[in-house]
Amino acid sequence: ELRTPMNAVLGYTDLILDDIFGEVPAPIRETLERVKTNGQHLLALINDVLDLSRMEAGQLTLSLGDYAMGEVVHAAVSAVESLAAGKKLALKAIVPADLPPGRGDERRLTQVLLNLAGNAIKFTDSGGISIEARAVDGAFLVSVSDTGPGISEVDQHKIFEEFQQADSSSTRAKGGSGLGLSISRRIVELHGGRLWVESAPGVGSTFYFTVPLQVERQAEKA
Ligand code: ADP
């Protein structure tokens, strides 16, 4: 179990940061904040690698239930809004109040949207990010647009493969495992949907995914 020790490290770091053992002097606090950020990063990487191995073993399965797409968007927005604010990026969510109810794996769909929104913020240095959800032809169509560097035609194919990142030094500097998009695409496909990107260098990127409104069973393996 890879997650348990990492969670313990994060838990103890939080206790110290909460001054449970006495007031923490500023320089130590700063260092501990870094321990925490890096620990959270490592935990995210561990989760991605675990998902990848489940995926390869054909054991990535959906837990189907009723959900509201508005809630999924809301959860993703709340999770990334401080990141966006920290980079002075505008963050907009457009969700009609009358979206139909959904059935699918809410936790996994939130993971997909978080991955897309997190990437949009990670790779964008000015401008903003816009998340939009609509219902079209019996499916949800969700998009995440950014005003970032954009992705070349060649890289657009690569980035959905495991461990692949667009080949530029700026990308490398941003960290990440190169697993998020391949896992996200798989999750969407298990719902019977599609995930794709429209982008050109210099004009930003828009990632789209569709999932049927009501998913009653998981799609067969492709
Ligand atoms: P990671 O973000 O961990 O590298 P992903 O699979 O989520 O892994 O993304 C793969 C690659 O796709 C990224 O490394 C980056 O090169 C490219 N990419 C993804 N989203 C964007 C975006 N919004 N703008 C520019 N490049 C992106």
List the helices and strands and how they pair.
Layout: H1 3-17, H2 26-56, E1 65-67, H3 69-86, E2 90-94, E3 102-104, H4 106-123, E4 128-136, E5 139-146, H5 153-158, H6 169-173, H7 180-190, E6 194-199, E7 205-212
Parallel strand pairs: 2-4
Antiparallel strand pairs: 1-3, 4-5, 5-7, 6-7
Helix pairs in contact: 1-2, 3-4, 4-7
Bound molecules: adenosine-5'-diphosphate.
Residues 115, 119-120, 123, 146, 148-149, 151, 159, 165-166, 171, 176-181, 205 line the site of adenosine-5'-diphosphate.
- Into which percent range does the helicity of residues fall? 40-55%
SSE topology string = HHEHEEHEEHHHEE
Number of helices: 7
Largest sheet: 5 strands, mixed
Supply Rg. Answer: 18 Å
Low-pLDDT residue intervals, each spanning 5 or more residues: none
Structural class: alpha+beta
- The strand line-up of the biggest sheet is 2-4-5-7-6
The CA-CA distance between the termini, in Å, is 29 Å
Shape: globular
Which small compounds were modeled alongside the protein? adenosine-5'-diphosphate
Structural summary, described in words:
This protein is of the alpha+beta class and 222 residues long. The protein is built from 7 helices and 7 strands. It has helices spanning 3-17, 26-56, 69-86, 106-123, 153-158, 169-173, 180-190; strands spanning 65-67, 90-94, 102-104, 128-136, 139-146, 194-199, 205-212. The longest helix is centred in the N-terminal third of the chain and has 31 residues, at 26-56. The two termini are 29 Å apart. Adenosine-5'-diphosphate is lined by residues 115, 119-120, 123, 146, 148-149, 151, 159, 165-166, 171, 176-181, 205. Adenosine-5'-diphosphate (ADP) is lined by residues 115, 119-120, 123, 146, 148-149, 151, 159, 165-166, 171, 176-181, 205.
